[in-house]
Amino acid sequence: MRTEDGGGHDLRHHGDVEVRDEGRGLVDLAVNVRTGTPPVWLREVIAGSLAGLAAYPDGRAARAAVAARHGLPPERVLLTAGAAEAFVLLARALKVRQPVVVHPQFTEPEAALRDAGHTVDRVLLREADGFRLDPGLVPEGADLVVIGNPTNPTSVLHPAAAIAALARPGRTLVVDEAFLDAVPGEREALAGRTDVPGLVVLRSLTKTWGLAGLRVGYVLASPEIVGELERAQPLWPVSSPALAAAEACMAPRALAEAAHAAHRVAADRAHLVAGLEAFAGAGVRVAGPAEGPFVLVRLPDAARIRARLRQLGYAVRRGDTFPGLDTDWLRVAVRDRATTTGFLTALKAALG
Fold first, then answer.
1. 172-176 sheet: strands from edge to edge
2. What count of other Cβ atoms lies within 10 Å of the Cβ of residue 279?
């Protein structure tokens, strides 16, 4: 089902569409899942869990592991079938009157709110301001505010203090940190904070660990909010293999591996950005500074360039389905240097 707003944005268009069907053979720079994942050791953990499929899932160990990783009690954790389920639960379970979504950002939160019957207000951040958050733009009457950090697709990392400044009595503040573990040191994270009223932090294991097909994520919030969301969930919402993966990804070894991957992503991103900036004379502009495992690029005639790149073997994400962006924008995933160099060669040909 497509969910469109008044401006015609297809809120249910995501990067995976670019590499389906005839796009299967393309080099994938449209999806933000880290390549080469899941690692062998994680695949082995998941495979080992299959022997217990006859039993109903028991999420207690995984929940405790997530809680320990963030220094929280288990009653502040809710495991979900990916962050996407969390957006649906928030939209259906919480009683809100004036939800606000800060755009450009991942469109699924707004789609879920609209599907639940809510009228959604938007705060549109501007390119001229570097797509940076100005807390003063959010209406005082908003009782639900959703923002990503770092934000997809802009790759902007907002200061934690600026986001926390959005908190108000009677307001639920939802921060999507699906890509925060790809930021070295997890700078500006709000996960684990208990001093921000109404704070709800969403995390996903999809991006860093390559588990899009397994569907596993979690919510960090007050016990009261967790209880409301949990009552809206079906029984056994997260499968046993997903629970095993979640528990394993909270282990010290996994956290160290994720931290190393974040530094590698930062280096690979710098290579991509430098290559893109070399095309400034052709009108290419990179939004930034980019801090996520993807970059947002503005260039003339982007739709034609995207089609030409597909002919040359590369898939990138169109940007015009994000509220606040138009057809001049593309999102490009960070990949290893060799892949990026090949893409930059193709981009040069497409621009020419």
1. 77-80, 217-220, 199-204, 172-176, 144-148, 99-103, 121-124
2. 17
Q: Where do the domains of the chain lie, and which CATH numbers do they carry?
A: 15-36+256-351 (3.90.1150.10), 40-254 (3.40.640.10)
299 Cβ contact list (under 8 Å, min separation 6): 279, 282, 283, 284, 285, 305, 328, 330, 351
Sequence letter at residue 348: K
Cα–Cα distance for residue pair 258/266, rounded to 1 Å: 12
Q: Which residues contact 243 (CB under 8 A, 6 or more apart)?
A: 49, 57, 58, 59, 61, 62, 79, 216
C-alpha dist (Å) from residue 12 to 84, 87, 195: 11, 13, 34
Is the whole-model pTM more than 0.90? Answer: yes
Strands 285-286 and 217-220: unpaired
Q: How far apart are CA 105 and CA 139, in angstroms?
A: 18
Let me know: does 240 contact 130? Beta carbons within 8 Å: no
pLDDT tens sequence for the chain (352 residues)? 446 665 678 888 888 889 999 889 999 999 999 999 999 999 999 999 999 999 999 999 999 999 999 999 999 999 999 999 999 999 999 999 999 999 999 999 999 999 999 999 999 999 999 999 999 999 999 999 999 999 999 999 999 999 999 999 999 999 999 999 999 999 999 999 999 999 999 999 999 999 999 999 999 999 999 999 999 999 999 999 999 999 999 999 999 999 999 999 999 999 999 999 999 999 999 998 999 999 999 999 999 999 999 999 999 999 999 999 999 999 999 999 999 999 999 999 999 8
